[in-house]
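Students often ask why we bother encoding 3D structure as a string. The short answer is that it lets us treat folding as translation between two languages. Here is a chain of 106 residues written in the first language.
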Amino acid sequence: MSTEILVNASTVPTKGTASVTFQNAQGKKGFAIEIYGTATSANVNFKCTSASGTERVLSGVRISDFGVGTTGNMNEIWQFDGTGLYSFIAEVTAVSGGNVTVAGSW
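And here it is in the second language, the structure alphabet:
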């Protein structure tokens, strides 16, 4: 398993750089992210790019309750299908009371 930090201890809204996680997945299609840190609250939008390089909203599945969504919150783990995708982008749109880190695993 490989892990990549997509957003590192951010205390302000920030757009993580496009991770080439799906390219590096070595044939694996599944991908998970974890949202954690010291913040009391944070919102993270999920985006992806494909061959065209256009950013698009990406839906994932929250593993705690199998809810489907395009935005995650603190202390959640989300799973995605990376079939046909080039990169994943974590965009922190709000953070308060500390910092937020987003890490991806495949």
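Translate back mentally: Residues 44 and 92 are 4 Å apart (CA to CA). Keep this in mind for the problem set.
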